[in-house]
Write a structure and sequence with these properties.
With 189 residues, the chain is mainly α. Helix content is 67%, strand content 0%. The chain is built from 7 helices and no strands. It has helices at 3-36, 43-62, 67-90, 101-119, 133-144, 152-164, 166-170.
């Protein structure tokens, strides 16, 4: 996928789903707070499962334009979402421990995604927001790995997507599409 197609998908997704993204983000924050405080131990798994299913169905299924999005990313996120919901039911009494250093780094990365996107010259709607594939996988790995009982297959699937993020550098996905005002290609790789 070239950079122009990459940012076009993001722009269309953000433009058409911003309200749902805000609702999901609030749901995510609430679920994390409830799990980290021990009030509803399984709530983080529930919200992460819903977020992963949403990314699979909406970002890749509805807005995806490339075969790799339909045949790799969509099933990967559906599996991750389904496994997180399964874990929510199977291990509902599992305790979410406070984040360790590397988990804190991933959580900080999640929080900084939009700011970094903005600092790289992106503006809404063609910028990275919280309810997108890479931020969701970062928060999913950081939070889910904090539970005492872990489904290693789920962590492997989440890591596979995390590793595929390297492809964005290889295929120059960090480039912005042509600027309509100047006709210049802005390159951040």
């Amino acid at each position: 996928m070239d950079a122009t197609a990459f940012w076009k998908v993001i722009g269309e997704y953000n433009s058409q789903t911003i309200t749902v993204q805000i609702i999901l983000m609030l749901f995510l924050v609430l679920g994390l707070i409830l799990s980290y405080t021990g009030k509803i131990k399984w709530s983080a798994k529930l919200v992460l499962g819903v977020a992963n299913l949403y990314i699979g169905i909406v970002f890749f299924g509805v807005f995806g334009t490339e075969p790799i999005q339909f045949f790799f990313a969509l099933p990967l996120y559906l599996c991750c979402g389904g496994l997180l919901l399964f874990e929510c039911i199977k291990n509902k009494d599992d305790v979410l421990e406070k984040p360790k250093r590397w988990q804190s780094i991933l959580l900080l990365l999640f929080v900084l995604y939009p700011a970094i996107s903005f600092l790289l010259g992106n503006t809404f709607p063609q910028m990275v927001t919280y309810i997108m594939p890479c931020p969701i996988v970062s928060v999913s790995i950081a939070v889910y790995s904090g539970y005492r009982r872990k489904n290693r297959f789920l962590l492997l699937l989440l890591t596979i997507w995390g590793l595929t993020g390297i492809k964005s550098l290889i295929f120059s996905a960090c480039q912005l599409p042509m600027s309509e005002d100047t006709g210049l290609q802005l390159n951040y790789t």
